[in-house]
Amino acid sequence: MIISTKKTKVLELPVLGLGTYRIGGDHERDLHNDDDGQIQSIRKALNAGIKHIDTAESYAAGHAEMLIGKAIADFDRKDLFITTKVSRRHHHYKDVLESAQASLARLGIPYLDLYLLHAPHPEIPFRETFKAMNELVEKGTVRFIGVSNFTAVQLEQAKQYSQYPITCNQIHYSLSARDYERDGTLEYCRANGILVVAYRAMGDEGTPAVGWSLLEEMAKKYRKTAKQIALRWVIQQPNVVGLAKMIQPQHLQENLDALTWELASEDMERLTDDFPIGVTINR
Ligand SMILES: NC(=O)c1ccc[n+]([C@@H]2O[C@H](COP(=O)([O-])OP(=O)(O)OC[C@H]3O[C@@H](n4cnc5c(N)ncnc54)[C@H](OP(=O)(O)O)[C@@H]3O)[C@@H](O)[C@H]2O)c1
């Protein structure tokens, strides 16, 4: 399957990428994890048309990157788009450079497509962090740089120190998580050519949603699942692409299917206006 992309002046990303948080363990490596099964799942996703893999040095303390490295070893590097993130405790100049090299070694690749600051550090100055990020681009270690969990205000501050475009902002954004919509970050990104990459795009897991009846109504109308409706709502927005962890084959299939049809504009509007913000989507 060919997955469509969204473009800014500088960056082009598939509308759906593979998330890898909790692959190989949570914050630490899980020694009982089904590594081989997860490697196979990543390969299955790539064979099904997924090109963008999102990871981070912190996921399973580097073990997620190791598993991705094994999964992609037989694929043509040029056909893949690999994003990883430097944890905020590593935002000092030397640490950023070391983290990037360590990620490359774990992933077994010569360069990163996209390198993100995982979250802003309240005390380490952007000037210092971006000195390293700029150098990584200059040396060809990374093709593009970006950030994650940044507000419009933080983006505006950071860009003063970046010699290269801050190409994307990876944020928690879904029908039920709309903080970045309310605080103007989404609009700021659109206006400034910064692609929004939505994580947990299908909503949080947890207790049943108050908005369930609206999702259920939409799911019935489109003959889709509630998660598919929720994912569709995110990726149908201008300047927004999504990520999903989808290790189980049925989740991969369901999420890929969500790329093949559209919500009508009046349903997009209803979901935007009527879905109760701050509740969880559970099915
Ligand atoms: N920048 C950040 O601070 C940040 C924070 C959180 C996440 N992220 C990134 O964003 C990615 C996505 O976020 P996430 O993993 O937290 O949430 P997610 O993509 O919503 O995945 C959460 C769970 O939903 C399941 N799932 C996937 N598709 C489904 C479907 N169609 N129906 C029902 N369940 C489905 C997955 O199961 P299976 O995997 O078992 O199939 C997974 O366990 C992460 O993996 C990570 O790469 C970034």
From TrEMBL:
<feature type="site" description="Lowers pKa of active site Tyr">
    <location>
        <position position="85"/>
    </location>
</feature>
<feature type="domain" description="NADP-dependent oxidoreductase">
    <location>
        <begin position="214"/>
        <end position="272"/>
    </location>
</feature>
<dbReference type="InterPro" id="IPR018170">
    <property type="entry name" value="Aldo/ket_reductase_CS"/>
</dbReference>
<dbReference type="InterPro" id="IPR036812">
    <property type="entry name" value="NAD(P)_OxRdtase_dom_sf"/>
</dbReference>
<dbReference type="InterPro" id="IPR020471">
    <property type="entry name" value="AKR"/>
</dbReference>
<dbReference type="GO" id="GO:0016491">
    <property type="term" value="F:oxidoreductase activity"/>
</dbReference>
<feature type="active site" description="Proton donor">
    <location>
        <position position="59"/>
    </location>
</feature>
<protein>
    <recommendedName>
        <fullName>NADP-dependent oxidoreductase domain-containing protein</fullName>
    </recommendedName>
</protein>
<dbReference type="Pfam" id="PF00248">
    <property type="entry name" value="Aldo_ket_red"/>
</dbReference>
<dbReference type="InterPro" id="IPR023210">
    <property type="entry name" value="NADP_OxRdtase_dom"/>
</dbReference>
<feature type="domain" description="NADP-dependent oxidoreductase">
    <location>
        <begin position="16"/>
        <end position="203"/>
    </location>
</feature>
<feature type="binding site">
    <location>
        <position position="118"/>
    </location>
    <ligand>
        <name>substrate</name>
    </ligand>
</feature>
